[in-house]
Amino acid sequence: MSDLTLDRAYAPLRRQRRLPLPPLGASLALLFLAALVLAALLPQLFTRLDPLAIVPREAFQPPSWAHWLGTDQSGRDIFARIVHGTRQSLFIGLAATALSMTIAITLGLLGGLGGARLDRGVGWLLEVLFAFPSLVLALLFVAVFGSGIGPLIIATGLGGAPGYARMVRGQVLAVRNAGYIEAARALGHPTSRIVLRQLLPNAMRPLVVTLTMGVGQAIVWASALSFLGLGARPPAPEWGTMLSMGRDFIANAWWLTFFPGLFIVLTTLSTTVTGRYIQQRLEGRLP
Amino acid sequence: MSDKTLIVDGLSIAFGGQTVVRELSFAIEPGRCVALVGESGSGKSVSARSLVGLAGSRAEVSARRLSFGGHDLLTLNERQWRGVRGKDIGFVLQDALVSLDPLRPVGKEILEVLQTHRYGDRQQRGARVLELLERVGVPDVALRARQRSGQLSGGLRQRALIASALAMDPALVIADEPTTALDATVQAQILEVFQQIKARGASLLIISHDLAVVAQLADEVVVLRHGEVVEQGPMQQVLRAPRHAYTQALLAAVPAEHPRGGRLSPQRAAVAVAPRVARDRPNEPLLQATGLGKRYLGPDGVVRQVVQGVGFELRAGRTLGIVGESGSGKTTVARIALGLLQPDEGQVLYRGQPWNLPGNAVDEATRRPLRREISVIYQDPLGSFDPRWNVAQILDDALHVAAVAASQRPARITRLLGQVRLPAALAERRPLQLSGGQRQRVAIARAIASEPKLIICDEPVSALDVSVQAQVLDLLADLQDELGLAYLFISHDLGVIRHVSDDVLVMRHGEVVELAPVEQLFSQPAHDYTRRLLGAVPRLPGSGAALVVPPLDPEHDAFDLFDESRLWKIAI
Fold it and tell me: A157 CA to chain B: closest CA distance, Å?
C-alpha cells in the first residue's frame, strides 16, 4: 500500500520522461484517419475508377494490378467503391455521434442541473432506453421510418445517446460541485454564463475520448444496419452495404467481403487507438 | 551504544540521477527522539521511507552505514524487509484517512499486523488489539475495534493507525507528519501518545514541518532544505539559538509567536511599510449577521443543526477571525456570508441592506451587482480555478465581472500580478505549473480584481508551508493597509488567527462560544472551551506555556464525525 502511495507521489517525475512524439500505434492510427478524411473529401486523389461503372465482363476478378482489391459481381472496382464509400461512412459516423451528443448533453444537463425531481425523471428515461439493446432500438426506428441514410443516422444516433447521456450527467454532477464553479458564483457571473463557459466545457473534457471512439462505434453500427438492408441502398458504395452484397459470394470471391470488412475494422481500430492516445495526453497534462 | 540504536550515516537518495537527499546522518538511541524538519520538497518523507525500505523501486538509496538492531538495512531484500517492517520498525503514515482500509474495522487492521508477524494465538491476538487501542487512548475499545475508519473521527483514526504501528512493540517508531491534519486539541492528545511511546523506551523519528510540534517531542532536530542538512543539534539549541539563517526564518515564520502587526517573512522585513496604521478609523459596518441558523438533512434522515444563533459584525478595514475545529460550522457561516447558501434562520446585512435572508427573500439578481464587493479566497486555490485556464484567463474572467473593458484588461492583469508580488511572466502559466504559494497569490489577485471591500478567506494558508504561509499572511496584511480591505478570516489555526485578527469569534458545534477582541481573547479567555483550545496549541521552547493536554471530548469523538464538506454537496 505504501509503495502505491509513493508511486503516485513520484508520478510527475515519470511523466517528464514521456516522449512528446506519439507512439507508433497512435501515429499509424492518426495517419489512417487523415487518409480517410482526405478520401472522403477528394476520392479522386486515390482512384480514377468510377465506383458505380458496371463492367459485366470484368466481374469477380481477384485482386490484381488493374484492380487492387478485385472487382465485385458487376465488375465494379472494390477499391474505388471503398474509397468513395468513405465519405458516406465517415459522414454517418460523425453525424450519428453528433446527434447522440446533442441528445446526451440536453438530457445530461437537465438531469444534472434541473433539480432532484427532473433528475429522477431523466434517470428513469435513461434506464428504460438502456433496457433496450441499442441496436434493437435503432432497428425499430428504421422499421418504422423506412431505410435510407437519414433514418440510418437518426437510428444510430438515438441508439448511442443513453450511454453518453449517463456520462454527461455524471460529469455535470461532478463539475457542478467543483471549487471553480463556486468561485464563479461568488464572483457574480450569471448562471447561464457559468453553465456555458465553465460547466459544459469542463464536463465535456473527459468525453472527448469517448467521442473519438464513439465515431468508430457509430460506423460499425451504421454498417451493421446497412448490412441488414436497413441503411444505404445498393448500388450506393457504403461499406456495410458492400458487405451485405458480397455475402452471397463469400465462398468463391472472398475479396468482396474481406476488404470492406477490413476497412471497417481499421477505422474503428484507428479511432479507438487515437482516443486512447488523446486520453493519455490529457491525463499526462491534467490531474 | 546499545544494539537497538538506529544509525544513519551519509544517507543519499536519488531518483533517476537527480539527488533528492544528500549526506543525511543521525543516530537514535532507545528512548530518544529525533525530528526531521523541513518544508515540502525537502526530502524528509523519502528519507523516512528509505528507513523502512519503501522509498520506491526507482529510488537509488546509498549510505556509508544504515543499520538498526543488528540489521544492515542497506542489504535487506524485500522478503527480509517484511520481517523488519512492523516488527522492529513501526511506521505511522501521514494521512490516517487514506492509510486505513475504509471497508475493514480498525481492529482487523491491527490484527493483520499481529498475524503477519505470528503473534501468539488467536485469543492473545484479540486481547492484544484491545490492549493496543487502550494504550493509545481510544475510549470504548470493544466498540471502536469493530468500527471502520469512516465511522471514526480524525483523532481516533490517527490513534488506530499508531496502534497498528505499535502492534509488535517495535524498538523504533517512525511517524511522518502524524498530527498535520488534526485540530489543536486532538493534536495535543496525539503528541501525548508519542510521549508515552518514548517513555516506554522506544526510539522515535518524527517527520514534521511544524517546529512547535517538534519542540514537544524531539531531543535532536535535523533541519532539511532541498535535501541538504542545514542545521542539526539538540532541540533546545536549534530552536532557541538557531545558527543557520534558514532555521531562523522558519522560526520567525511561526505566526503564533508574532501577534498582530508583526511581519513574518524576513526577506521582506527590510522593505516593510511603516508600522501598521492604527486601526481605529471610524469604520462603517460592512457585514452584520444576526441569529444565523442552518440545518441539514443528513443521509441517515436525521436533521442536524450545523449552525445556530451565530451573529457578528464586521467593519470596513478590519479583520474578524473565526476559529474552530473541524465540524464547528465555520465554513457554513462563510458560505452564508458569501450569499452562496441560504440560512434557515437569521439574517445577513451588507452595508445595512438585506444580503442573505431565509427562504429566498433576497434573490440572486439583487445580489449580483454587489457581488464584486465581496470576494473569496479558498484553502485549495487549484480547485477554485477552471483547469482549462491560465493565470491571465483566470484574472481576465474576474475583471470581466468587474466590468473592466477588454482593452484595459491586459494592463490590469499585469498590475494585479504586481500587487500580489508575482512576476508578470507568470500570466501565461497554468495554475498546475505554479507552486502552492504562487497559486494562492493568484487567488488573491483574482479576489482583489473587482476592487472589493471585503474578502472572505476560508483557511487560506492551511495548505501552505510555514515560510510560504508567512509570506501570504504578510501579503494579505499589506493589501489590507493599501486597499482598506475587511477580512472575514476563517482558520483552525489559533496562531494564524491571533496574527491576523482584530476580533475573534470562537465556534464550536455550530454555536458561538466567545466573541472578543483578539488580545483579550488570548490573554483572558472567558470561556472554558477557549481556554482548552489555547492550552492545546504547541509552543516553541522559551515561550513559557506548557502544553495542556485536553481531556477527550466525548461529543467530538461521537460516531460519524460530521463532515461539512460532504453535506454542502447535498445542499447545492
Answer: 29
